[in-house]
Write a structure and sequence with these properties.
Blueprint: H1 13-19, E1 21-25, E2 31-36, H2 37-41, E3 53-61, E4 67-72, E5 83-84, E6 87-89, H3 103-108, H4 112-126, E7 139-149, H5 151-154, E8 161-172, E9 184-190, H6 192-198, H7 209-224, H8 226-231, E10 241-244, H9 272-279, E11 289-290, E12 295-297, E13 304-306, E14 313-314
Length: 322
């Protein structure tokens, strides 16, 4: 069988949501299946926080120690127009070289899968040449488990959100940025002081929920000690998975999801989909129906609602990603 290579040529945001297969996980970050981006990100009563899947967040610094931020494009289906770290996306199933990291990859700190995915998406979103990035220079710091409904974009019953195990990657590199307008609306290098000013609520700027958690809980210490963060293991935590609920503004959605990871019930039984994974012997169950056919796009806008249950359509047999 020929190796499958990822390509973004002539594809829309909806094409990516249908084609790209996310890595589904249990609470311990073990890969238990795969599902397209639509089904991985739909919040519904049957799956109040969608499906837990693997992600990465790149923090790229220039030679002056400034952090490269991006503002996500208006065309993005999930969390459009928000400011966030350099690049946030997903390692995918089914491509060569593999983007699937094993537990041994994580414990070694190497995580070649997410690093390959990061190089792929930095080129796709920001036009950063892979030749300007040395995979060995990426520093994997830790993992963050969080969830957030995109109620800011799609309203209080938003059918989209994130539920991710986010791998944090730092790198310092001299790069040229040529953003893809379908992915990135704007970009900016900032100092710590400039970022603090931008994140002041008075600016009215929107921020991704994952970046807000990282910025408020971790980024200050990592950035203040940037040389050590990049070149030593002083800030590396390979074993612990840090778990956080989103802020109040991102709770709810079509599944009416509430506090979970910050409570005493922060186990798989506190999430409908993860509880079903346990009941199914630790693997992702093959659903009889897809939720995507229930999505209703608002006329003239890039927003969605979730239709009634009777809109379900029997699921077609899974096909391998192209």
């Amino acid at each position: 069988m020929a190796a499958k290579q990822w390509s973004a040529e002539n594809l829309s945001q909806e094409d990516f949501m249908l084609r790209d297969e996310c890595l589904l996980l249990d609470m311990d970050d073990n890969v238990i299946g795969h599902s397209n981006k639509y089904e991985s990100h739909i919040f519904a009563p049957e799956r109040p926080r969608a499906k837990l899947h693997r992600a990465f967040s790149v923090f790229l610094f220039d030679e002056e120690g400034r952090l490269l931020l991006q503002q996500r494009a208006t065309e993005k289906i999930t969390f459009p127009n928000v400011w966030t770290n350099t690049c946030c996306s997903h390692p995918l199933f089914g491509f060569t070289p593999t983007e699937v990291d094993t537990p041994a990859d994580v414990l070694s700190g190497e995580t070649p899968g997410v690093k390959r995915a990061a190089i792929r998406k930095l080129e796709h979103e920001l036009g950063i040449s892979p030749d300007s990035l040395d995979i060995k220079q990426f520093k994997f710091l830790t993992r963050l488990h969080y969830w957030a409904a995109d109620v800011v974009t799609h309203g209080k019953e938003a059918p989209f959100g994130e539920h991710e195990m986010d791998y944090i990657l730092f790198i310092r590199a001299k790069v040229e940025v040529t953003p893809n307008p379908e992915e990135v609306r704007d970009f900016k290098y900032v100092t710590q002081a400039e970022l603090k000013a931008m994140m002041d609520p008075g600016t009215g700027l929107l921020w991704s929920p994952w970046f807000r958690i990282i910025a408020e809980r971790f980024l200050g210490n990592w950035w203040a000690d940037l040389d050590a963060t990049l070149t030593t293991n002083a800030h590396v935590d390979l074993k612990e998975i840090h778990r956080f609920d989103c802020t109040a503004e991102h709770m709810g959605g079509a599944g009416a999801a509430g506090s979970w990871l910050d409570t005493e019930a922060a186990g798989p039984e506190g999430d409908t989909w993860l509880a079903d994974v346990v009941a199914n012997g630790g693997t992702a169950r093959e659903e009889a129906v897809e939720l995507k056919p229930r999505l209703v796009k608002t006329e003239g806008a890039n927003t969605y609602t979730l239709g009634p249950d009777q809109a379900h359509i029997a699921k077609k047999p899974r096909t391998e990603p192209r």
